[in-house]
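Quick start: what a row looks like.
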Amino acid sequence: MKVQMNCEKCRAQALKIAAATQGVTHIAIQGKEKDELMVTGDEVDLVKLTRCLRKKLHHATILTIEVIKEKKEEKKDDEKYTSPYYVCYPPYPMPPQIMVQDPCQSQACSIM
């Protein structure tokens, strides 16, 4: 909304009027000249808000009306993050160790 706000007193009064409106959850002053009032909330009656601002501040215009859609963040909250599932198998059994000995090495040489 574009509202005629020339001084800090007018800005404070506009914020007070917007805060008193039913359904308003967030209010911000924007624009280069700080003459735009951004109001967000659930089921805000902009016509009623504009009339109240016009009574007190003499000039108020609705610039844009947007419906803010909820993002898909709610789906992400429902899906809990789980780390990848790794399967650890036990190591393969080692074959039995067989000791192989050369029969010639264990006996002494008969020539000597």
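That is the whole record. The mean pLDDT is 77. The radius of gyration is 40 Å.
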